[in-house]
Each structure stands twice: as C-alpha cells, then as structure tokens.
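Lab channel / #folding
Pinned by the channel admin:
"Please post every new chain as: sequence first, then the structure tokens as a reply. Keep commentary short and put observations after the output so the thread stays searchable."

First post following the new format, from NK:
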Amino acid sequence: MTVAAFVPNVVSIHPKHNFKTLKDLIDYAKKNPGKLNYGSAGSGTTHHMAAELFKTMTGTFITHIPYRGAGPMMLDLLAGQVDLAFDGLGTSSAQIKGGKLRGLAVTSAQRNPALPEIPTVAEAGVPGYEVRTWYGIWVIKGTPADIKNKLYQETVKAMDHPDLKKIWAEQGATAGGMPPAEMEKLVRTEIVKWAKVVKDAGAKVDN
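Reply from TO:
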C-alpha cells in the first residue's frame, strides 16, 4: 500500500583484508575466484540478492555462506570467520564507525548521511548498481481505494513525527511515503529485477 522507508546495504569487510576500495576487492576476486566468501542472513535475503547482483555485474565469484539470521552472520563477520557481507547499513554502521569493520561502498544510488565518506557501489566502479531494502505497509487485496488512500495519508503523517524520523535516520533510512499506485509499480519492477538476478545467479532457497 505504501513504502515506509528505504534502507541501503553496505559492503562491509573484515579489516584483516587490506582492501581499501571496492576496486581492490573486485580486482582480487577476479584474480582469485572463490577465495573470498560473504555471509548473509539466509538464502533469498537482501544480503544474498545484493551480493549476487554484484557478482553478475562484476564478473566475480565470491562464495555464499548463508546464516540463520543477520545476528549470527554479524558475529562471524566480526570474528573474521567470513570475509565480507552486503549487510544492512543500520546494523553495520556502528561497527564501521568503531573500526571493527571497513565499509567499502553503500548500495544506494546516493551516498548515505549516516556514512557520508563511503562512496556508492556505482561511484566505486560498478555503474548502474543499486539495491535498497524497503519496508512497506500492506493491506488485504480488494481493500477499497478510499480506505487505502486514508491509510496512506495517516502513514505519511506518522512518518513525519520527529521521533520516528530520528529512529529511521539512525538506521541510515530515508522515508518512503509512496502513494499506493507508485508502490504497486515499484513492486512490479522489483519482481522483474530480482527474478532475473535469481535466474542469472542460479540462486536456490534453503530446504
């Protein structure tokens, strides 16, 4: 019915690696296929799909290590058990700022105010790359248009509250507030985009 907020992912790497830029990572991965691995919160998650899109666009092979949730994945990333992750900015930003991880690029089209010094993936050498995690508010199919529009208006009003704005900003999020028709268009576009990524990558859902 409406998108509440958009949150980028960030390419976060353990500092045991000497990669200072995303190009360093890409160059190494091309010369050493399969030697790097990335963790995700599980097969089919944004972490997973963002990395698979990156791999297809850069012609690299980085081994996928799926976890049962972002928490266990982050623990192993911090311990250096996995090399990198395309993690949600909200969970990685504190670790990057604290020096426990190195942020190489954010996956959004623009730099993020929470980590303004980190370039986008497109800026860092992969033009056209963009991934955003988005959070939507949904209603049952067949809900009358006037009710959907009223809920949309109230959602936008709530999203404008200072406390809610602060919470989203701390997560590196930008407010959505899409009208129902625009959200429907976004969903259709996302289905096409990610279906192609799944097909190209041969990605499978865990049994």
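NK: The helical segments are 22-31, 46-58, 70-78, 89-97, 145-159, 162-170, 180-201.
TO: also worth noting, The CA atoms of residues 44 and 205 lie 6 Å apart.
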